Amino acid sequence: MKRKLLLFMLSMTACVDMMAIEEVAAPMNVYARDVLSLNGKWNYIIDQQNIGYYDYRMNPTPWGFFLDAKANHPSDLVEYNFDKSETLDVPGDWNTQDEKLFWYEGTVWYRKKFQWTPQTGRRALLYFAASNYMTRVWVNGKKAGEHEGGFTPFCFDVSDAVKKGENTVVVMVNNVRRKENIPTQIFDWWNYGGITRDVMMVSVPQIYIDDYFVQLRKGDRKTVDVNVRLNKSCAGKKVVLSIPELKVNKQMTTDENGVSSVSLRIKPVLWSPKNPKLYRVNLTMEDDTVKDEIGFRTIETRGKQILLNGKPIFLKGVSCHEETAYTSRRCNSAEDADTLISWAKDLGCNFMRLAHYPHNEHAIREAERQGILLWEELPCYWTIDWTNKKTFACAKRQLTDMIARDKNRANVIIWSIANETPHSDARDNFLSRLAQYARTQDSTRLISMAMEVTGASNYVNRLHDNMSKYVDVVSFNQYIGWYRDVNDAPKMKWEIPYNKPVIISEFGGGAVAGFHGDKEKRWTEEFQENLYVQNLAMLDKIEGLAGTTPWVLKDFRSPRRMEPVVQKGFNRKGLFSDQGKRKKAFYVMKKWYEKKDLQYKK
Ligand code: GCB
Q1: Would you say the CB of residue 525 lies under 6 angstroms from ligand 1?
Q2: 391-415 burial, b if ≥16 CB within 10 A, otherwise e?
Q3: How does pLDDT run across 402-453, given as a tens digit for each residue?
Q4: Is 573 in the pocket of ligand 1 (CB under 6 A)?
């Protein structure tokens, strides 16, 4: 009995333990918390040589820009001034906000002032939905922490750094491309830099619900597995889960890890593209309540089929970058996502491949509300530094954070771990560990990756990839008609020796909207149209084809596409132009999807 009491007291001290400024897990569903948005105008300073961080011997300087110093005396020397500097909008990439920064790859310092009132018994977190690529953060001159990776959230407990009244946050963002980064040095999209997503202060109790997973068990449409984790290892905390519409009201108790799990029998109306039904779900632990909207559905494979809620589905998809319609900047809101989703819907899609990195949470939720299934992807793109341990750790961290953020979203059905990676033992080792790890984080979704055709002789396209045994869905990109003669398409046969569903994760070719001519003439809409006609006829012959995500929804910026007459800095493979004009291939694709609807209705 005494021992029990001692253990309980020890666990209580662990619970209320004061924390230093440190990185903490980004709380699940942050938008539903008590938040103060720090979005808006931030003063910025371009720092090509990192003088705000290193001295002239390249040692970190204690007098860096993070101090946000002022010259208080006429003789003071301060060689920067945030107050007098221009501003950038946050969230937003820096490239499209200031002409000087369009091509810039380097460091930019940001500063924001905000009012804060610390509340007794509550902690203050500083949350970044993402900033690209390397980020360092200071609050009132104190270092909060650093983060690597441009597309996933991160969060610091800054309770011990904030004060009543005016506070300052200074952020150093650097988007230099490096061989060891994820993504690596080269990639076919614009390297948008800056604080590209929302920033906010989050007020939470000392002990709060940090993470939860409320999802139907794989293959079981009536059992929901619930797992709740507190931010601290506190035993004996009561957590109440309620789903009013399903008459669920369940009290759970945390174990010594601050975790509580339960399985419940429910009879939900299942979420599907046709009926994207979401249920209000409330989780309460003492004075902490988190409200979410969660949909229930199952996703599995059976042989070469993908089953949604137990029934075969054809994934009528399209690939898409996180770049806005019309303005071609980084997306960062539900409205930005909405336009792209509406274009995908016009095409007849029920599925989108969010290439080639995790997109923002607003986009995921908007797609969920609108019944669009999603493929989410890690930026393990092309030839990354397979043998570098830090690179693996970075990829694993991005995978953890992507799954942690979106694992309650009914529309997310596929975690993709890579795109077009060259075969080698080192790559297999790296990616197989990622795939296995993904399953430990989420046992309910499908794993895939965009592979490449490994050999084509005598018009037989072979897909032999050691990674096939680690994925649930075999997906690959192929560019017959663009990087290879379109007249080969009718002769093509396929060798895909796996009893798994197949997704063609990319095919397509470039065209300039409004440029017409012969179908043999590259860059005309007719060339692209013919390419689609030939490709779709060819894809129809693939046994086990369960979906396609043609490349790509809209023309997007890429520094690899600098041909000055047609490309002008854009990859022109869009079915829509960057200005939203539909190209002829759009109608070919749409018609093919209409045909699929009829086939799948049978
Ligand atoms: C690919 C890549 C994609 C490129 C595309 C292209 O295979 O996965 O990122 O943009 O080809 O346009 O060449």
Answers
A1: no
A2: bbebbbbbbbbbbbbbbbbbbbbbb
A3: 999 999 999 999 999 999 999 999 999 999 999 999 999 999 999 999 999 8
A4: yes
**pLDDT of 18 strictly over 70:** no
For residues 176 and 105, give the distance between their C-alpha atoms in angstroms, rounded to a whole number: 5
Region for 473 from its dihedrals, namely left if φ exceeds 0, alpha if ψ lies in -120 to 50, beta otherwise: beta
Under 8 Å between Cβ of 596 and 213: no
Mutation to probe ligand 1, out of 188, 531, 566 (largest number of atoms < 8 A from CB): 188
Nearest to 463 by CA among 526, 404, 519, 544: 544
Tokens found for residue 391: 């690179």
Segment 114-143 shows an average pLDDT of 97
Cβ 477 under 6 angstroms from ligand 1: yes
Please tell me the predicted confidence (pLDDT) of residue 454: 81
> What would the pLDDT profile of 508-533 be if each residue is shown by its tens digit?
999 999 999 999 999 999 999 999 99
188 CA distance to ligand 1 centroid (A)? 6
- Whole-number Å distance, alpha carbon 469 to ligand 1 midpoint, is 24
- Give pLDDT, residue 11: 45
- How far apart CA 257 and CA 263 sit, in angstroms, is 18
Distance, in Å, from the CA atom of 516 to the CA atom of 585, rounded to the nearest integer, reads 12
Q: What's the pTM?
A: 0.96
Does the Cβ of 319 fall within 6 Å of ligand 1? no
